[in-house]
Amino acid sequence: MPQQQPVTIIMVEDDEGHALLIEKNIRRAGVCNEIRTFESGTGALDHLFSDEVRNAGPFLVLLDLNLPDMNGVDILAKIKSDEKLKRAPVVVLTTTDDQREVQRCYDLGANVYITKPVEYDSFSQAIRQLGLFLSVIQVPETL
Prior knowledge:
Layout: E1 8-12, H1 16-28, E2 35-38, H2 41-48, H3 51-54, E3 59-63, H4 72-80, E4 90-94, H5 99-108, E5 112-115, H6 120-136
Parallel strand pairs: 1-2, 1-3, 3-4, 4-5
Helix pairs in contact: 4-5
């Protein structure tokens, strides 16, 4: 069986304080995967849709919805409408707990929706589950 590549975490978060907190919690949960942080939706999409990334995988996207240049929901829709990228799990991390927005994200294919600022316990719990999720994620063989 081929050696499975570790999952790269793509974090789209414009607030540096939140990004650092999220990364700290991910590390504290024992997840040592590479984390690439983008402060804008445009930068993240350019990265995700570059050939090397689209064809490389596996990765997981941590997505803030309120970005300076675009709405995270649009990013989610773009990821989930792409043949290769749609398999990537997307975790939405946002300050919005508007039920319509939450439902829209799930309808578009988000895997987890976490509201921030999150209580440390529920956040680290979610990240630990994410770590577990990352360790068992089965990435389809590329053809």
